[in-house]
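We store chain and fold; example below:
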Amino acid sequence: MASVSILGSGSWGTALAIVLADNGHKVTLWSRNSEQVKLLTETRENKDKLPGVHINDTIEISDDLLHAISDRDMIVLAVPSSQTRGLARRISPHIRYGQLIVTVSKGIEESTLKTLTEQIEEEIPNCITAVLSGPSHAEEVSRRIPTAVVAGARQKNTAAYVQSVFNNINFRVYTSPDVLGIEVAGALKNVIALAAGMLDGIGCGDNSKASLITRGVKEITELGIAMGGQNETFQGLTGIGDLIVTCSSVHSRNRKAGFLMGQGLSMSEAMKEVRMVVEGVFSAKAAKALADKYQLNLPIISSVNKVLFENLSVNDALEQLMSRESKDESSNLVWN
């Protein structure tokens, strides 16, 4: 039995706490909101984020951060990506040497273009980091609907340990050494999902969505490889798998925000309507900055940025994408 704390009591943190409790581990779910802690403890239900899902009675729910990070085999950071560095900095003085910290959020820091594990390692240089990612909406994981994800770490024994702690009959965990690729794919797929929602919002069909997802995979892969990620990662669960579910699912907050923007709402209005953090909005600028850094032409990512931050309409963005100069699908194929 492992002793695990999950920092962040949103839908994903709560769902992972349920997975770990099902596996018989000692689990603490931390929230900075004392009122939320009281409500979750009394009702054993996250009524706002996961209505109808029972939170195992064995899960300790606490607002005491020092208690939550003391003497743990694993600490899981499940706060929004924009809060990761701040929380890591806050807990850093109290983290023991060699402490395993697993990030389960998805995003790239706009100001530094660093991934979440890079941010954590900067703030807590004495820790060991890992990432858990894949096509895994909390609404389904919490209801024990079969899901497959990937545990990434630089050392195989670290990834294998994370795998052993989380893996069960409903939550299958693979391992990978490509931490960078996993994190880049997880952040960029949210940007593409915004575009997918925008297409839905203006009434496009299945052909449009399939085209967007396919070309989105190409953009994610091109940038990810330029940054040092591996092609296999972008074709796997944390790449195309996560992209498909985020672009298609009714649970996807990024797709929903994009849909609302396609319907005419502004970015701020759409984010307010979704009532959860829309990670793609925070990652879009970073994705465009990275594309510029590596001198890559990524038209979908560029168009999303124009819609979000330059007041380009979704219809005009689509027209611009569709009217670009004709080209081969792949520059790697050779004509006879």
In short: The longest helix spans residues 179-201.
